[in-house]
Each structure stands twice: as C-alpha cells, then as structure tokens.
Automatic annotation (TrEMBL):
Highest rank taxon of the organism: Bacteria
Signal peptide annotation: 1-33
EC number of the protein: 3.2.1.14
Annotated organism of origin: Streptomyces nitrosporeus
Reactions catalysed, as given in the entry: Random endo-hydrolysis of N-acetyl-beta-D-glucosaminide (1->4)-beta-linkages in chitin and chitodextrins
Protein name per UniProt: chitinase
Length: 507
C-alpha cells in the first residue's frame, strides 16, 4: 500500500543491525491445525505502526478479520522480520500476540502481511532483503506457528515487482512452507496483494504469478489494489474495480487453464481505499461505490474483500487529502466497515441499522448566543429502530440539549448549544451519539465561539515544527491535546479519533 511506516521505526531501522542467525529451519514448531478462514472474508488492513490495539478496533468496527500490515526486516540484508520493521515488535506475544488471540477467541482471525510500499522501496521486504531461501521460509513458518494463522499475505509493489531474484526466492520459500504445512496436515493459504490497472495486472504482476507457477507455488488469492491508478483518467471507482477484477480473472484463466469460472473468481481479492486515495480527489471511493462493489463481490463469489485501512474509516478530515487516519470525505465512523462486514460467511451482522448526521455540521456564535443544528437519523439497513440521542464535548459555559432525546430511525432532533459570556473563545467539537439495538453511531458538530471571557489553556501551544512524544500535552484551538506516540507536523483536531492526538477537552 502507498503508505509510510512511522518515523520512529525508520530511525530504529537506521541504527539497528539485526543478525539473521538463529532462525529455525523448517520442521520445527507447532503443526496444530488452525481454523481455516471463511470461504468469503472481509479483512480490512490494520496499520501496525499507530500504537493502537487491533483487537479493540476490530470490536469497535464490528470487523471479525483483519489483514495486519506489515512485516518487514529492520535493515536491508537482514533475514529477521518484525512488525513494521520495528525491533520492539518481534514475532512473539509481545508483537500483537495477545491481540491476535483475542480476535481468534471472538471467532475471527488475522492475515499477517509481508512487504508493503515502504519495505518494497527500501529493500526490507524479506525476500528482497534476505538471500537465503531457507531462512525466508523459516521466517514465514515462525509467523504461522507463533500466531496460529492459516493465511499469509505478500504485498508486493513498486521496486519489489522488478526484483526478479527476490520474486524467485519468495516463491521458492513459499513452496517450502507449503510442503511443510502439507506434511503436517496444516491448512495454509497464500495471497498476493498486487497493484493493478483498470483492466487487470500490469506485466510485472503477471510475471510474478508466472514465476509462482514455474516454481510449483500455489497461489490461493490474488488481491488487487483497486486504487492509486495514477493514470490521470476519469474514474468511477466501483466500475473500475469490476473491470480490473475481470481483467485479473482472464489473466488467471490463462495461468490456470484447468480451473472453472467459479474457481477463478474464488481466487480474486479486492482491496479498496475508502474516500480520497493518494492520487487525489479524482480517485475517490464513495459509500455508494462501496455498496456497488459489495453487491458485485457477492454476485461473483470472490474470496476476499478489503480496504486500506481500518484507521481511515471515519470522516475526521472531510475535504482533505489522503491520510492514514481518515477518509477525506463526509461519513460516519465505520460506515465502510458496516457495508463490507456482511461479506464474511456467517458474519451474523445485524439486519437493522441506522445513521446519524448533523446539518449544518459547523457554526460560529458570539459568547452569550445560541447555535442550533438539525440531527437527522436514517435507516441504512432493515427496519427502523428506536434511537436514543446524547451529546458530549461541550466546554464550560456551553449548555447542550437535544429535543427530542429519543427518535425512531428516520426522525430528526434539534441540537441547541446555548453559550454564556464565561465560555472561552475557541473551536470545540461537539459529538452527538445515537444508540440503538444494532449499535451506536456518531455525528460531529464544530462550534466556534468568539468574544468569550473564560479561562485559557495552560498547556503550551502546538507547533508544527516541534517533535512531540507520547504523553506530552499541547493547547490548540481552545482544547488540550495529549500525544499518544511520537509525532511532528500533525495538527491536533485533524487526525481523527484514532489518530495521534487525544482530545482532553476544552480549556
């Protein structure tokens, strides 16, 4: 994926030399049979460098399966993979082990993914970095046995697609891993995540699959990234997904002439990028696009539906460019997850659901005045249900109320924000939460107050050029913010609820 890992991990990689010695040779390790993935699975990517808990985000979004990004070596030439290339996140219980077990205990699973854009451009994708096929295979095996997973993903793009020696080593190592799994009665699937054109794989991606066939390596899923086309063309992202996948299907038919049409579609995976992708607004994947792709994926019977990435599934930066922490479009948190989640076989998603929005979504008022907005609810799936509305985030000197406080999905309520002269001037995020039988949804209203006489923030003002570490506090736009991890240049209030800055409230 076209995303960068954290600066902290890059610094670690630059100063740490990792020895390749000590990696087990195939044959060691547990061979217990884990539970296979469903025939059809929704598994969005989780960005491992954010410091967040994958189990917590999976639960919050209603997602049972995750693709964990990414595993790579800390330095070029190493044969030892770490999460995000960070030596502090090894392949062990210390490296997401507890989270993965929690997800599995809830009936889901994870798909560890090797590579990614950063690794593929820095030579730290393990098959590009390590020249020993046996050590590469042993690293794959360690991930499988440590986390008891049944699928590994290989995210291969940009420079790694041109590294023919790395491609050959990777496929040979996968074949060794598959032979080990077969000998031990262990279920194991391999997916390749590859960039695509709107008509199918480019020559480099197709050549990678030809090499797999030549090496006797079984590829179970080819997962195409249906975004970042960078072709300066006009795009309907849902239509382009369908033509790209049809092109892949036809390419797979040439590589695997013995497979039926149904089997070929069963090898296809699709990964979208919700909202604005890295190219810009001309390549925007909307909620309507998501609904079209979902219906198409069900009809074709593809294997995997995914998107990049779970932390982006929120409307925290509408009108903004592509970012790790938000989609850049107007949406509720987890809207894309809720559309795609029923794709997983036996997901048991609720039949009824609803949405919450506020109109207008922002307002400015002089201290002592009142601002209002209409809170609208709508049925997004099934039948209408009762929705209880609450409001939070109002600073001292502002009274927030909703009338009525309970509606039937499809109904409206009036949000009233009454200010006093004692409120501090600034901009505040007011959150309206609607809770129903199927879960909860939120809508944000941005209130700007002028002319207030209230107290001022005590934390130092945020500075774009300052490096902040986890726990440090700053003031910005009338709120106090705490950094969750290392950051610089990321403005508080723009990174969304899953971003680096935690909003400690108005001050």
């Amino acid at each position: 994926m076209r995303r960068s890992r954290s600066v902290r991990a890059l610094v670690t990689a630059a100063v740490t030399t990792v020895a390749a010695a000590g990696m087990a040779v195939l044959g060691a390790g547990s061979a217990e049979a884990a539970t296979p993935l469903p025939d059809h699975v929704f598994a969005p990517y989780f960005e491992s460098w954010t410091g967040e808990s994958p189990a917590d985000l999976a639960a919050a979004s209603g997602t049972k399966h995750l693709t964990m990004a990414f595993l790579q070596t800390a330095t070029r030439g190493s044969c030892t993979p770490y999460w995000n290339g960070d030596t502090g996140l090894p392949i062990s219980a210390a490296g997401f082990g507890d989270d993965i077990r929690t997800i599995q205990a809830r009936g889901g699973d994870v798909i560890p993914s090797f590579g990614g854009y950063t690794a593929d451009t820095t030579g730290t994708e393990i098959a590009d970095s390590c020249t020993d096929v046996d050590q590469i295979a042993a690293a794959y095996q360690k991930v499988v046995t440590t986390y008891d997973v049944t699928r590994l993903d290989m995210d291969i793009e940009v420079d790694a697609l041109d590294n023919t020696a790395g491609i050959d080593r990777r496929n040979k190592a996968i074949k060794k891993l598959q032979d080990w799994a077969a000998a031990n009665g262990r279920t194991l699937e391999i997916s390749y995540t590859l960039p695509t054109t709107t008509r199918g794989l480019a020559d480099s991606g197709y050549a990678l699959l030809r090499n797999a066939v030549a090496n006797g390596t079984r590829v179970d899923v080819v997962n195409i990234m249906t975004f970042d086309y960078y072709d300066n063309a006009s795009h309907d992202m849902a239509d382009d997904t369908e033509t790209a996948a049809q092109g892949l299907h036809d390419q797979l038919a040439r590589l695997y002439p013995g497979k039926t049409d149904s089997q070929l579609w069963g090898m296809v995976g699709v990964t979208e990028m919700p909202g604005v992708d890295d190219f810009g607004p001309a390549e925007t994947f909307t909620l309507d696009n998501a609904r079209q792709v979902y219906a198409w994926a069900v009809d074709k019977g593809i294997d995997t539906l995914s998107f990049w990435a779970l932390q982006r599934d929120n409307g925290g930066c509408p009108g903004g460019p592509a970012a790790d922490h938000c989609s850049g479009i107007e949406q509720n948190t987890w809207d894309f997850s809720r559309i795609f989640a029923p794709f997983t076989s036996g997901s048991g998603q609720p039949a009824d659901d609803f949405s919450v929005t506020a109109a207008p979504a922002a307002g400015t008022v002089a201290a002592g005045g009142t601002a209002t907005a209409t809170v609208r609810t709508a049925v997004t799936r099934g039948e209408a249900q009762e929705v209880k509305l609450t409001v939070g985030g109002a600073p001292a000197g502002v009274t927030a109320s909703l009338s009525p406080a309970t509606v039937t999905a499809g109904g409206t309520s009036t949000l009233t924000l009454a200010t006093t002269g004692a409120v501090a001037s600034g901009t505040y995020r007011i959150t309206v939460t609607g809770a129903g039988a199927s879960g909860a949804h939120t809508a944000d209203y941005t209130l700007t107050v002028t002319g207030g006489t209230g107290g001022r923030c005590t934390a130092g003002p945020w500075s774009a050029g300052t490096v902040y570490t986890g726990g440090q506090q700053v003031s910005h736009k009338g709120h106090t913010w705490k950094a969750k991890w290392w950051t610089t240049g990321e403005e508080p209030g723009t990174t969304g609820q899953w971003g680096v800055w935690q909003d400690l409230g108005a001050c």
